[in-house]
Write a structure and sequence with these properties.
Length: 70
């Protein structure tokens, strides 16, 4: 009674049509960056370094979205 392969494909096509592939790529990249930052922060205990990483990630996200908008 789970989701079959055909239902999953239909859902993915509808999501791609609604959001567009560029937007989905941005979301995937942002999510990957967030997970990477979370893993790194779990290993590091230096608060100054964590703050600088968050700032860098935010700047990278803004630059990437500005490129995509043009």
């Amino acid at each position: 009674m789970g989701i079959s392969v055909t239902q999953l494909v239909i859902i993915l096509v509808v999501v791609a049509l609604i959001f567009g592939t560029k937007k989905l790529r941005n979301i995937g990249g942002d999510l990957g960056g967030a997970i990477k930052g979370f893993k790194k922060s779990m290993q590091d205990d230096d608060p100054e370094e964590i703050t600088s990483q968050k700032t860098q990630q935010t700047e990278d996200s803004v630059k990437e979205s500005q490129k995509q908008d043009k």
